[in-house]
Structures are given as structure tokens and as C-alpha cells.
Amino acid sequence: MPGVQTVTVDYDAKEALVVFDSSKATIEQMTAALKKENYEGSLKSWPES
Fold first, then answer.
1. 20 lies in which domain range?
2. Per the domain annotation, does 41 fall within a domain?
3. Alpha-carbon dihedral of residues 18, 25, 48, 14, nearest 10 degrees?
4. Do residues 49 and 26 lie in contact, with contact meaning Cβ atoms separated by under 8 Å?
5. Is 16 domain-assigned?
6. Confidence class for position 42, pLDDT limits 50, 70, 90
């Protein structure tokens, strides 16, 4: 997906850390892309700028 820079997956915890360029992708776009592939996703935390 355009804007995604890195993805780190913890399979045991069933979590992924996604670093992305917010000028190229939004949380909503990433969540929609996950749902399209039959995965669920949600925002766990968002770092302060």
C-alpha cells in the first residue's frame, strides 16, 4: 500500500506495528485494505507529534 514504510509483526501477540507516511495513507485506508483481505485491524495507540 502506498505510504507504508515498515511493518513489524508479532505473531504470538497477533499484533503488527505499521509505520507509514500520513500524507500518503490514512488509518481508514489501511483498515479498509485489511478488511478487503478478510483481516481485522484497529488502532491500538497513536504517538503524539
1. 4-36
2. no
3. -30
4. no
5. yes
6. confident
Q: b/e string for 27-42 if b means 16 or more Cβ within 10 A?
A: eeebeeeeeeeeeeee
The predicted structure's pLDDT at residue 49 = 54
pTM to 2 decimal places: 0.71
List C-alpha distances in Å: 40 to 4, 13, 48.
17, 14, 24
Q: How far apart are CA 24 and CA 29, in angstroms?
A: 10
Query: Rounded to an integer, what is the distance from CA 1 to the centroid of its chain?
Result: 10
Report the percentage of the chain scoring pLDDT > 90. 43
What do you get for the CA distance between the two ends of the chain, in Å?
Answer: 23
Total count of domains within the chain: 1
